[in-house]
Design brief:
The chain is an alpha/beta fold. Among the domains are: about 100-365, 3-Layer(aba) Sandwich (Rossmann fold); about 385-430; about 530-628, Rossmann fold, CATH 3.40.50. About 45% of the residues lie in helices and about 10% in strands. The chain is built from 21 helices and 18 strands. It has helices at about 1-65, 70-75, 100-110, 130-140, 155-165, 190, 200-210, 250-255, 280-285, 325-335, 340-355, 365-370, 385-410, 415-430, 435, 470-485, 510-515, 530-545, 560-570, 585-595, 610; strands at about 120, 145-150, 175, 195-200, 215, 220, 230-240, 260-265, 295, 300, 325, 360, 460, 470, 550-555, 575-580, 600-605, 620-625. The strands form 5 sheets. Strands 3-4-2-7-8-1-12 form a 7-stranded parallel beta sheet. Strands 16-17-15-18 form a 4-stranded parallel beta sheet, sandwiched between helices. Strand 5 (about 215) and strand 6 form a beta hairpin. Helix 4 crosses helix 5 and helix 7 packs across helix 8 (about 250-255). The protein is globular, with a radius of gyration of 32 Å.
Length: about 625
């Protein structure tokens, strides 16, 4: 018994010693951690103090070279904010402006008399920015110099038509596009013969690139002067001005290089993704000093900041690192920082700028003037069919596996393009599996389909607008139109149809067929629709009424999906019109007119990339966005 007691005592004593050792180790480890954390805190504080000291030193140098920066915001606060007042209805405008549009016209006229000589009209889409801009052009017509209007390609014909309609043809308008014969061999003299030049951003960028960089011909680099950049315009107007949101793109640089007395930006979405996009608009409008780059070693302040090959300013020859952007230092950096106080102050300062250069109105604030019914948004969810569900799961599993591989290998940042491709594939699967399965020509039908009868084309011929038909279908269609005393328009793009009847039958070239339409790659006799397409057909059937036609617009990012929808709707008895990026400006406008002016055309299929902006449609009352 004594032996057991002694053993238990020795065991407890050993356990107590072990516990004391463990506690001491834990205490020492905790003490070490505290010392490490304390040292890290001290280091971080020293680094932050060094950064703050360095920032303050840079700021002091900048203010010494540019004393006006010290009073930047107090000087801005002294600039009066223009409060719009209703202007009188312009006699030169044939359409009666709504009250808020007359206020916008008054604000624009007074803004041109301010130090900014222009500004940003940021009204929400559909509030009549175009008619306000046209009214502004007419407010001082005739002007010594022409006005340049830059628009997305889809807006070329629309702007021209609206100018002609609103002003009763008083303004001489030139559409500057490669398909317009009047715009060929453009010269400064020819430009000055017009009141308004309407041009796309792409065309302007092309002219500017040929002037600055040129093109290669053999061993030589050929450069060509841009006639647009050689003219000083009376007024520069950027429609859908967010098209230049990236200041480093060719389109933005081409716009910055333009010269004009008054400058305007029209955009319903001045900022789309991040606050840095707003700088491009300020730069175009030349809102100084917020668009300037300042050298902290000399009085150099430039809108166009260019550096040499050895990273020195071309104007003052100081290092590029010595130059500062007021917009970045005063607005962008504080707004994107974690300092809530600095962020609040920067946003307050940003509002000071926008109050003086921007007018922004929303539809909800002017519902009575616009005479619009309330907008209703419905999200319709539906389950996949069994085959679609299995296919979608396999694509999802494959996408997840590839993404996890990128993460495991630590190369996710190097595979952004591949990741976006995976996301796009999942979006396509949600629309229709054939968008993936029939993407390429391998194993597909690859037969031309007639655009009249929707069957494989027999004795296939092609019109000058590049659409295919059965020879007999095309001949019967043209003869029936001419017999009724009309002109045969292409049933696809709605421009006057022109066909060489002597041309031989088109050979079924797999490569050419595969490029034309997804319908040509699928054997449509055995084709299976998708849940989303059938759900759309069902919703459109519900809109049909015996008393009136309710028109609808269907938007998608994928032209191939729109082609499948169109084929299904036509089989279901719906008359449709379509607009995509392959169409010329004339074809696009004809498709819009066909939808607007024909009561029996119920559905307009629009590619978001081609018609997502600058599209003026007032006939449709329903919009379907079919992409996830």
């Amino acid at each position: 018994m004594t032996t057991n007691t002694q053993a238990r005592r020795r065991s407890r004593s050993g356990q107590d010693s072990l516990n004391r050792i463990r506690n001491a180790s834990r205490s020492q480890a905790a003490s070490r951690r505290q010392r490490v954390l304390a040292r890290a805190t001290v280091v971080q504080r020293r680094i932050q103090n060094w950064r703050d000291h360095r920032k303050a030193a840079r700021r002091a140098k900048l203010e010494d070279a540019h004393p006006e920066i010290k009073t930047l915001w107090s000087d801005l606060a002294k600039v009066p904010v223009i409060t719009p007042q209703p202007a009188a209805q312009p006699d030169s405008i044939k359409r009666k402006l709504k009250p808020f549009q007359l206020e916008g016209l008054d604000w624009m006229i007074r803004q041109e008399k301010s130090q900014y000589k222009g500004g940003l009209l940021g009204d929400e889409m559909g509030m009549g920015k175009t008619i306000q801009a046209v009214s502004l052009i007419m407010s001082d017509h005739p002007a010594k110099d022409p006005t340049l209007v830059l628009v997305p390609p889809i807006g070329l014909i629309q702007w021209s038509n609206e100018i002609r309609e609103y002003t009763d043809g008083k303004l001489k308008v030139l559409i500057c596009h490669q398909t317009n014969k009047e715009a060929k061999d453009l010269t400064v003299k020819k430009i000055r013969n017009y009141d308004v030049i309407v041009m796309s951003y792409n065309s302007l960028e092309s002219m500017y690139r040929k002037q600055e960089k040129g093109w290669t011909r053999g061993d030589e680099i050929i450069k060509e002067k841009s006639p647009i950049h050689a003219v000083h315009f009376h007024r520069l107007i950027l429609d859908e001005a967010h098209s230049i949101k990236q200041r480093t793109t060719g389109s933005a640089k081409a716009c910055f290089a333009l010269e004009g007395t008054y400058k305007w930006c029209l955009s319903g979405t001045p900022v789309q993704n991040r606050i840095g996009e707003f700088f491009s608009l300020l730069r175009f409008l030349e809102v100084r000093p917020f668009a300037d780059y300042f050298c902290q070693r000399c009085p150099c302040a430039r809108l166009d900041w260019a550096i040499t090959d050895d990273y020195k300013c071309m104007h003052c020859n100081h290092a590029s690192s010595e130059h500062r952007s007021v917009f970045n230092e005063e607005l962008l950096n504080p707004i994107t920082s974690e300092d809530t106080t600095a962020r609040h102050d920067a946003l307050k300062n940003l509002h000071m700028i926008t109050a003086r250069v921007m007018l922004r109105r929303m539809k909800k604030d002017h519902t009575e003037s616009m005479e619009l019914p309330p907008k209703e948004v419905v999200v319709h969810n539906e389950f996949f069919a069994e085959i679609e569900s299995d296919f979608a799961r396999s694509i999802m599993a494959n996408t997840t596996r590839k993404f996890d591989t990128y993460v495991a290998q630590g190369v996710m940042l190097n595979n952004y393009a591949n990741i976006f491709t995976l996301i796009t594939q999942m979006r396509q699967v949600a629309n229709h599996p054939d968008l993936l399965l029939k993407r390429h020509a391998e194993g597909a039908q690859n037969v031309l389909v007639c655009n009249i009868c929707d069957e494989p084309a027999e004795e296939a011929i092609r019109s000058k607008c590049h659409h295919e038909f059965c020879r007999s279908c095309a001949r019967s269609y043209v003869e029936s139109c001419e017999g009724a005393g009309g002109v045969a328009d292409c049933p696809r793009c709605h421009i006057p149809m022109s066909i060489d009847w002597e041309q031989p039958d088109i050979e079924q070239d797999d490569e050419q067929v595969a490029k034309s339409s997804i319908i040509n790659r699928i054997k449509m006799d055995n084709w299976t629709s998708s849940t989303k397409i059938e759900m759309l057909v069902y919703e459109l059937y519900k809109l049909r009424s015996n008393k009136q036609t309710i028109k609808s617009i269907v938007f998608s990012n994928f032209t191939s999906f729109l082609q499948l929808i169109e084929w299904r709707l036509r089989r279901a008895g719906f008359n449709t019109s379509m607009l995509d990026g392959s169409m010329s400006p004339v074809q696009r406008q004809k498709s819009i007119d066909y939808f607007m002016n024909n009561a029996d055309v119920e559905v307009f299929l629009v590619s978001l990339k081609a018609g997502g902006v600058a599209l003026n449609l007032t006939e449709a009352s329903r919009v379907f966005i079919v992409d996830p």
